[in-house]
Amino acid sequence: MTKTVRESSSSRAGDRDSLDDRLTPGREYQSLYGYTFAVDSPRWELSKSVTINVGSVAERLQPRSAQGFVATLVHMARTHSAHHTSNCVDRFLHFIERCGCDEVTTAALINYRSTLDRSNEWYMGVVRLLIYKWFELGYPGIEEPIVDLLNGWSLKGNIKGDAIKRRNPTAGDLTENELAAFNEGAARAFENGCVTITGLAMALLISGSGRRPKQISHMKVMDVGIYSHKNNGELLRLIQIPRAKLLGSIFRDRFNTFEASDELWAVLQAQRKKCIRDAELILGHALQMREQQLLPLFPDIDALRACASFDEFQSLLLTDRLHCSERSVNDVLKKVVETSGCYSERTGELLCVTSRRFRYTTGTRAARQGTRSRPSTPLSAR
Asked: Burial code of 231-253, b = ≥16 C-beta within 10 A, e = fewer?
């Protein structure tokens, strides 16, 4: 890392020369997800679900360091995922607050690392990534001795799978009975009118696929169209789901597919028809096939109603602005449990559900069966 950074010193000098232009008040940039933010604004909206508070950090730093920090974040917001950029801001804020410092120094970093234990040492790893990029870009606030210090540290990442190994009844994977209880509870909640077909589709997709709320919220109607593959004469019903947590990935650029059960397929087809019908009713306009295919499978109804024109609606179809938020997906999981009375066989209490637990469960079951995900090829390309 040090060698690479030193070799780029000439380009870094050029970045310093243009810093004033880059931070001109009122200058606007576009995030990786297509959201526009002003460089001098204290809060930047980077995606549907992510807004970062840049001002909370910049106001605590010396002017020179604040400039370098903001300029680095501009680069990250334009080239990295919104969640990754947000995580860097959160972890760096934790660093300067815990150490009470207004600039990055070797002493502050050593002090900060001494406050971390095995469970949160990964905080330092995120701060290090930010500092590396800051120095590589050549913005003021990071000197070479700081990078040399960080290069010499071996940091452990976030602890993964601990809850699974310990069979944690509230944080680990679900038992077969608990998973069945949730799925049956989702059906009851729908039958009793506690959740809509939209909520039922979200709940069953999470429990059946183990995907993250972000991935579910980014799905479009085209992802649950009638696409099939022949397998020993059988017709397979496949669902396409956008991938997440890929560094530098943009909105819906990579996918995974999985086979849906008959029950899930039927629910998703009902949701597919509903979102097309609702959109046409709200917009007062019949949708062409391409517009139907690009519709969010789980739309933000308020965002649809806020479209000032049909042209605006068409332009927003290629962004995440018309999609529901990640929070709405998480809220459905909790609502299913609370309204249908899903209890854990291990604790005797209401089932503690998070998308992560379903992800653990799907992974555990796949490992037992020796199966793997299908290749990440967009169905629309087939």
From this structure: eeeeeebbbbbbbbeeeebebbe
**What is the rounded radius of gyration, in angstroms, for the C-alpha atoms of the chain?**
24
How far apart (Å, rounded) are the C-alpha atoms in residues 90 and 61? 15
The per-residue pLDDT for range 271-281, each reduced to its tens digit, is 999 999 999 99
Residues counted in the chain: 382
Amino acid (1-letter code) at residue 239: I
Closest CA to 301 of 323, 270, 269, 274: 323
Q: Please state the domain extents for the chain.
A: 2-151, 162-381
Is residue 224 packed enough to be buried (19+ CB in 10 Å), middle (13-18) or exposed (0-12)?
buried
d(Cα 247, Cα 135) in Å, to the nearest integer? 19
Amino acid at 180: A
Q: With respect to CATH, is domain 162-381 assigned 1.10.12?
A: no
pTM: 0.78
- pLDDT, tens digit, 9 for 90 and up, residues 149-187: 999 999 887 666 555 555 788 888 999 999 999 999 999
pLDDT bucket at 247, cuts 50 / 70 / 90: low
- In the chain, what is the greatest distance between 2 CA atoms, to the nearest angstrom? 68
